[in-house]
Amino acid sequence: MGIILRNGQLLKNGETFIKDILIEGNNIVRMDESIGNDGHQEIDISGKLIVPGFIDMHVHLREPGFEAKETIATGTASAARGGFTTVACMPNTRPVIDTPETVQRITKKAREEGSVRVLPIGAITVRELGTELTDMKALKDAGVIALSDDGVGIQTSSMMKDGMIAAKKLGLPVVAHCEDDSLAEGGCVHEGVFSQKHGLRGIPSEAESIHVGRDILLAEATGAHYHVCHISTAESVRLVREAKQRGARVTAEVCPHHLLLCDEDIPGLDANYKMNPPLRSRRDQEALLEGLKDGSIDIIVTDHAPHTEEEKQRGMELAPFGIVGLETAFPLLYTKLVASGLFSLQEIVDRMTTVPAKVFGLPWGSIEEGAVADITVIDLETEKEVNPQSFASKGKNTPFTGWALKGWPVLTVSEGRIVWQAAEENDGEEMQ
Ligand code: DOR
Ligand code: ZN
Ligand code: ZN
To answer: Which residues line ligand 1 (CB under 6 A)?
Structure first.
């Protein structure tokens, strides 16, 4: 028995087409105006938008080691609820994802307990200490799709260069958290209006941009594919734009919070506004929107970074960096960027599906007959307030509580399996 998604509005080339979609096993087997029912399960999705399952190339699942913050089970349930069917998980777990054994442990757990596909990212340096390269070949053979020391910047140029040379040989992208510790040390928010007003130590923009500039030069010297994590400053955008113009293999990602907020929006000493890189200036925010628009920035990721409530209540200086993002990403982007007219629906959807697939060479992210059935169905009409208590994630740390948003995913199909379905009359609570 298959599943028929009936009468949904399939988004393609900027237009929507009313289609029935028949899913059998893991795959989409037919898409047509009207598919007859041969005993299949039917789901009426009239009036709802159909898009490819979203791909998030930057997620912290926290397992192994930090299961109080999140697990593979809760993190992937959160992804499903947010409409994501593929998530790449960052290696700053304990142990760090720096051996093939840890990679295998994660993929096994994800297969057994995960709602969606998990792609592990391996560390560039052993324990992310920045002093010794990992066995990247062994990591690749175990299944990592990229390399990163996310959570920390690689402080020495020579280590980054050696990492790029090794990654290039294996055809793996280097995904860089850009942060010069000598500039960032001790800062908890952006060095700007908010840090001055509250007498807090700031993280200056150059702490990021200096690494971006350095690494672009190294990428050009080594030929490696260099991908900038969570880009946050106007200067970083300029450097990436210029590098692309020269034909360098440089790509970049941006997070919804950096697109929608700046340091002036932080209401007070609330650590739900604390993440790394921090919310920058209004000028930086505008440069990110411009960079996303002109293609200097390729993709949108969440940097979903769950922490416990106790940790986030330690105050601006002591709380850990990070906010959750999987369950609010699309509604935020839809409401604030698409419904407001700044971006088209297709532009935003592409940057969460086909473009990340292309940048990382992944076979998912499009809806076609014969393709793997990774499908997200979205209600663009119903407005709901963000309520962290309803998140599937263990992390409730978001600055977006109470925001009234449209564009909530109501059905997520991952490899032909329904992994999230909202009950209509039940205000988004899960059926089953
Ligand atoms: O805000 C952040 N949280 N930035 C990072 O680079 C790391 C992440 C985390 O692991 O919590
Ligand atoms: Zn990072
Ligand atoms: Zn991160």
So the answer is: 60, 92, 150-151, 177, 275-276, 305, 320-322
